[in-house]
């Protein structure tokens, strides 16, 4: 099977069997197409996926970094390439290569509107009115004062 047919079959596999989102499938297929296009120029002929070396893969990722990819995008690109190569050639032909380090981000703070909306939803779902009022007050206290649950429960 040629590279183009492998890409098409892999995209179908991701959609049908793995049930990935349409956006993820589109991004992964685009990565596989970029890899095959790069290899055609890099290897000087049709892309030979079976003969891919770690140096070839590093050259591809370096080219993508020159295009302006950040560490997290490069790591996603490497993940897509590994998945494609494992599908097209089998696990044995996937070169072992460490991906770039990706810094763990900080959690996103909840906005005041989101906190009030959550408290209102919890209060509306309560069985009794007093339970809803209590839960509403506790949630807004946690958010407004920045308390941990143990600190809020320790209040008298």
Can you characterise this structure?
With 156 residues, the chain is mostly helical. It has helices at residues 3-16, 22-42, 54-66, 71-89, 112-125, 129-145, 149-153. The model has no long low-confidence stretch (mean pLDDT 88).
What does the secondary structure layout of this molecule look like, with pairings?
Blueprint (H helix, E strand, L loop, with lengths): L2 H14 L5 H21 L11 H13 L4 H19 L22 H14 L3 H17 L3 H5 L3
Helix pairs in contact: 1-2, 2-4, 5-6
Short recap of the structure:
The protein is mainly α. The chain is 66% helix and 0% strand.
Question: Which percent range fits the helix content?
Answer: 55-70%
Residue-averaged pLDDT: 88
For the largest beta-sheet, the strand count, sense and barrel status come to: none
Q: What class do helices, strands and sheet pairing give?
A: mainly alpha
- The fraction of residues assigned to DSSP E strands is under 5%
Count the E strands.
0
- The helix-strand sequence is HHHHHHH
Tally of individual helices: 7
What overall geometry do the principal axes of the alpha carbons give?
A: elongated
* Distance linking N and C termini: 71 Å
Low-confidence stretches: none
| Rg over CA atoms | 25 Å
